[in-house]
What does this fold into?
Amino acid sequence: MKACYEFEKILCGIEDSGVLNQGISDFLAELRTELARLVPEDFCYSYAPDFMPNMERYIRALGIRAHRGLSDFEKD
It folds into this structure.
């Protein structure tokens, strides 16, 4: 849950920074979609407890992609 909060904070920070254009907005929406796919509402029942540390790592990776997408959008 903490990783989800941190990811959302990153996206909100990007949106509030004023660097948005249509491409970046679409990119951020795609990342939110990936998060929703990774962490569905019933994720506690969908994943084994030993998989939870991996989820945190995957969510942090989405945050890294968000930052990298801003600096080199085409590369992401």
Summary: The mean pLDDT is 83.
